Amino acid sequence: MMAILIAGIVMLVGVIAIFLITGWLISGAKPVESAESVTARLYKVRGRYFLLLMAVLVIMLSVTLSNLPYRSQVAVEPEYIVPVSGRIWYWEIGPIQDRDGNPLQAGSGPMVLPLGKPLEFQVTAEDVNHGFGVYDEAGQLIVQTQAMPGYVNKLVHTFTEPGEYHVLCMEYCGIAHHSMVTTITVE
Ligand code: CUA
């Protein structure tokens, strides 16, 4: 939501800037002017405009770059490993393990994940590409990554709210794609 808002504001500012610059160029134009002087003046404006754009770019990057998810993925050491495998058309999740590979949960009961612990989902697929998306009770997407055959995508996440979370497939994978849903409990 925030990203869309920022993108909208940036676009609006950009459009207004284009209008202002165009207006300024038009208002400053003299009726008779040689091609050389016009060229020279425009080149000067272009140089300034370029510097302005670079300044805007640097400011925007420095403000927003830290919000990219990549940093949070390397900054946190996961405490538990959660294997995830997508198949047509269901999810296989678990067994959850500690970092030495010891299973935390015996048997194949309902998936329960610990609250407040950094978890590393190791996401893959057995057959075709799937999309691993975790949604909270309100239907808000919390984390997601692709589930691809032959690859293990690592996704680190710490649940901060207990409750029921829904895992949905986020990539069309065939006739029963919509039923590729499961629930995990966080407590
Ligand atoms: Cu699996 Cu869509």
Q: What's the CATH topology name of the largest domain? A: Immunoglobulin-like
Q: C-alpha Rg, in Å?
A: 26 Å
Assign the structural class, choosing from mainly alpha, mainly beta, alpha/beta, alpha+beta, or little secondary structure: alpha+beta
Question: How do the helices and strands follow one another from N- to C-terminus?
Answer: HHHEEEEEEEEEE
How many β-strand runs? 10
Query: Percent of residues in helical segments?
Result: 25-40%
Relevant terms:
single chain, 187 residues, five-stranded mixed β-sheet, alpha+beta, Immunoglobulin-like, binds dinuclear copper ion
Please explain how this structure is put together.
The chain is α+β, with helices and mostly antiparallel strands and 187 residues long. The protein folds into two domains: 34-67; 70-186, Immunoglobulin-like, CATH 2.60.40. The protein contains three helices and ten strands. It has helices at 2-28, 35-64, 69-75; strands at residues 80-87, 90-93, 97-98, 112-113, 118-125, 130-135, 141-147, 153-158, 163-169, 181-186. Strands 1, 2, 3, 5 and 8 form a five-stranded mixed sheet that branches. Strands 4-10-9-6-7 form a five-stranded mixed sheet, with no helix packed on it. The longest helix is centred in the first third of the chain and has 30 residues, at 35-64. The site of dinuclear copper ion has 9 residues, from loops.
